[in-house]
Give the backbone structure.
Amino acid sequence: MATAISFDDVTKRYRGGREYRSLRDDLTSVVRRRPPRDVVTAVDHLTLEIAEGESFAIIGHNGAGKTTALKLVTRIAFPTEGRIRVRGRVGALIEVGTGMHPELTGRENVMLYGRILGLSRNDVRRRFDEIVEFAGIGPALEQPVKQFSSGMQLRLGFALAAHLEPDVLVVDEAIAVGDAAFQYRCVERMGELVRSGRTLVFVSHDMSAVEALCKRAVILDAGRIRTEGPAREVVREYLAGVEAELTGRGDEPALEGGGPLEIDRVTFHDDSGAEIGAVASGEPIIARLHYRTRGPVRGPIFEIGITDGRLGALGLASMFIDGKVPDVLEGSGWVECRFESLPLLPRTYELHGGVLTESGVGSIVPWQRLGVFRITGEVSAAGKGAVSQMMEAAPVVLDYRWSIEDGAGGE
Amino acid sequence: MMAQIDTSAAPGPGPSVPPERQPPHRGEKPVLEISGGAGRITRDALAELWMFRGVLWAFTVREVKVRYKQAAIGVGWAILQPVVAAAIFALFLGRYAGLSSEGVPYLLFALAGMVPWTYFSNAALNGSQALVANESMLRKLYFPREVLPFSSDLASLVDLLPGIAVLAVAVVLYGGSPELTWIAIPVPVVLLLVFAAAISVALSAINVYYRDVKYALPFMIQIGLFLSPVVYPLSSIPEQWRDVYVVLNPVATAIDDLRLIMLHGEWPSWGTSALALGWSLLLLVLGYALFKRLERGFADRV
């Protein structure tokens, strides 16, 4: 397989500090032989190969050099040292408004971006309706982009990057700014491109999306590769690191609250009560919501849901539906929910949840991401696409059986 | 930036890949090599600039739209500027100071100087700001950066052409008539465009690093007005210096050419024009080389 992108010992340094220099600054620094101050090394001797057709994720904390690496691939910035090779056309969504000129209309921007990608006018026209439909900007098409809302800019930006036949699609966490429905469509589109043989480079904090979309990943840390390997293992290591950091930080309230009842944290347990972060597919798991109240709280309605990062919960455990509402909660304690079995493919899942008021109208704790857990297990299927499908397709394991009747009559 | 077709890495047709899963343009994908440091003018860079000619055009059209979008009299400003300046010069310098004007009415003489001068000064001022003014694009989108100053210079032509039209009308109003020589008008226009491009491409790049350009340039242009034969005739330059002067200052050549063509019905001085054009082209190559040298740092610095 050919290499789509290779980084060969690439280093990128920025001169930080003051944004503008005047001639005076440079003259004085030459005269006084001051070394340049505040040099930031964003990418540090990075060597990396991404094969053609691969879906690749770059993960890491803020400031780890992820976005800089993408900017180097797209020639927005250039490396200080080293060399990058990119094979084929690159479509990129790096920030809101990437690839668009604010003074040009939506239509002009589509044509312009096509030109920049090296497509002919006709190629762009053929794709035009598809782009406009995906972006959902309809009547705003003839307005300058600067009058678009940031959501519209984002949608148009992604539509441009993902529909003008890129060989390599580069997507930064910018899509996280969009609404959930849009994010879902982005993830779907990226999956589509990967299935049709395009190369995807995806930067995200959303581990479920990374695991769902990508086969391989690296963790960047201060511009260097800390781990490289199959996405699942890399995600696992990254999450373990994040967990370790979170637990090491003490009981700082990380969750949004402020109401009469707050959820401090969520822990996962097996039937023996031991705390776990992962469970085998089909095994029971207990989610324990540790709460704290200011005074007695009457009839709080707890709801939790499980998602793999896509829009909507895969399943819900809700007191609003089952009516098992506690009469009064006071002080601190926990509310537990035992899932008998989660028929889910081995991946990382998120637990979301919230608490409604006694009447069911209005929330005490807003619906939010409470925690992350993993379902473990081996991919035992034998189909041609078993591994990729287990990683990309719908997560719920159904008990199913095929029957086939052929033309000759009978099985 | 270098775009090279790397044939050694071209993949063979993969028999195990079903046709619908094959990426498009298999086997003809260009391989880009991206490296840092100072860039140079390469054949690939020029080929890329040619590939982006559509983008150059789009930016030029956009620039024209943006400049006059919210101006009530639009391109009228492009006419007003040289006409008013020429009228003032005619009043003070022509009438009271009695400067020589090669035997044509001083107003015509000054207008034929101000029209090209106004183009040059606007093109240089706008062109030198082209990168900084489009800062958000530099940080979000790749294209050959020289497209910005070049399209700015082309957009400024929209100011020059109505100016020449006004000059033509003025010539007729003063009793002259269009001559065959007027077909040579593109000679001074090309000369101005190339020289403005040379100045813009160099200064726009320097301006990214040193904002001093923004303050120094208007000052230089004011001095330049008096260093060019706008209000005085070329003949007032001492004979032995004149040839060097008109070649080194291509704006002087352009102004003199335009006067010969439109006011005197003569052909431009071909030899001088060729030398001035050669000098401007040399400056353009040098300015472009400087631009390429600095180009890779633009997004970090702008």
Summary: Chain B has 13 helices and two strands. The CA atoms of residues 23 and 133 of chain B lie 38 Å apart. Chain B has one domain: 42-301. Strands of chain B lie at 2-4, 31-35.
